[in-house]
Amino acid sequence: MSDFMRLLKWNDSGEVIASYEPEFIPDDQLLSYGVSYLDEALIGILKSDLILVTAESGAGKTQFVTNIAMANIMRGKRVHMIALEARQHEIEARIKFSRLATAYYEDPTLNDKRQHLRYINYIRGRYNELLRPYFGLLKATGEMKNLKTYYREKSFNVEDMSTLIRTIKHETDLIIIDHVHYLDYDEEQQNQALKLIAKETRDLALITGKPIILVAHIRKQDLKNKTLAPHREDIHGSSDLGKIATAVITLGRGAPASTSKFRTYVRIAKSRDDGSLENYVAECLFDIKKLSYDKKYKVGYLSRDGKKLVPIEKKPDWMKNGTDNTNDT
Fold this sequence. Notes:
The protein is of the alpha/beta class. The protein has helices spanning 36-42, 61-73, 90-105, 119-122, 128-131, 135-141, 158-168, 190-208, 240-244, and strands at residues 50-55, 79-83, 147-151, 174-178, 212-217, 247-256, 261-271, 280-287, 292-302, 309-311, 322-323. The longest helix is centred in the middle third of the chain and has 19 residues, at 190-208. The protein is globular, with a radius of gyration of 21 Å.
């Protein structure tokens, strides 16, 4: 039993021998979600966390976790991303475009001469000359060396995932798997396979001491019952993924807020450390010109039918860059 479980021992006075005291982690050393709402509410990502990010197909899951990767490599953290759905070099392309576009829009020498950049044009080589002056930024910071991305070349199953994570555990600070439904398994045994994936990834996070972010689909919702942000019970295939995760984050795509910004509804559908966060839904704006989320956000309660945000009565103490007025424009 001692090989598998840790036994806490007590002395005669009822005190735990070798008592536990939390390690203080400075803010600049915390792993980040890359979204101010989540970083303020959840106060970053902890070692051994197993975080589930889930949404409908096309709701921006890959971009969301790519932003998590970008936020952390910019802090000097080592990120390993297992990209089972993406094209070769897609993750790097998304990050590079975001960094170059930000530098371009913030260049004070351009005044009002900036053009509207689109990622779809960038990956087709339309901006090579336009953005060339900013290429040195990535070389100077050296942040891209902190990212290691694995792209699918052949079948990749749970055993392959486990072997890879155990191999890289000393070389990484954060592991992202995008996504779980693209692991190879027998479709007829999907529920059993997802239960195995849930158990294996939880064990790996505990054994390696490295946080793991899993991406998963939710079940397709009919328009009549569709909510702004899904529940964790909507996870496609098996509820075990949600049960075993330390945090579950669901995403919902909203209407455009402008020609370049789109609403994303972010819900902390589960937090093992603070269950009160499950009451809120945040409206975050995604800037398609920079492929990044605005720092400011709005927070409210989900209405009974789940189709709109209701203003909260009092702004939570942890909220720094958010507003509780969901009617603001």
